[in-house]
What we know:
Layout: H1 2-8, H2 11-15, H3 19-29, E1 35-36, E2 39-40, H4 55-63, E3 75-80, E4 85-93, E5 97-101, E6 106-110, E7 114-119, H5 135-146
Antiparallel strand pairs: 1-2, 3-4, 3-7, 4-5, 5-6
Amino acid sequence: RITQLHKTLTPEVRKKGDLSTGRLLFQSLCASCHILYGQGGKLGPDLTGSGRANLGYLLENIVAPSAIIPAEYRMSVLTLKDGRTLTGVISSTNDRTLTLRGITEETTLEKGDIKEATQLPNSIMPEGLLHALTPGQTCDLIAYLMHPTQVPLKK
């Protein structure tokens, strides 16, 4: 899939991408977890300064999100002694507490309240994200992600 997309998303094709539509696609598919240009969620990496100008880098991370997951973005499942189960990324820890960052909030927990902690081997970013998009939408999203500055939304 990466090879096919690399061949079809040539610079000429990407120039025809609708950046405003790409921004809308980013907002609906990616912004709950990723920041781009100062907007979005903090569960995944901030994409603003990433290697997104490199098509290969983008495609590897979108098409195969579990191939390489930095330790600071591995999802953890915590089972608490009171029976609750929480999932998120451990954003900080010390001798007494740990902070779990979820999609909507951060929760600081006493380590003594944790019965079991498991780190998941796969990324929470869904596989096949691009399968739901038309070729034109894929081009729009990739063109937007590769664009060096924020673009306006359509009126």
